[in-house]
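seq as requested:
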Amino acid sequence: MADTTVKTFDDITERLDEIIATVRSKDTSLERSLDLFDEAIRLGSKAVDMVDQFELSPREADLLDADSKSDIEASAADPSSPEDAS
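struct tokens:
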């Protein structure tokens, strides 16, 4: 999959996994590895842009807020919480 065909975040992560496997191969030349590294940087930038542009629906935002509040309340009630450890 060339980086011009990646359209979704899942496509990007799949292509990055392919790049990692290729670079780890002993048969991959240094020049090819550097080309793949450049592609991985472009894909990473594209993924960051996707995350930055991602917007939650109002319902998803409310659910996320509720989950965050539950996590905060649970950690406050649990004295062995890692957040309390110094």
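DSSP finds three helices and no strands in the chain.
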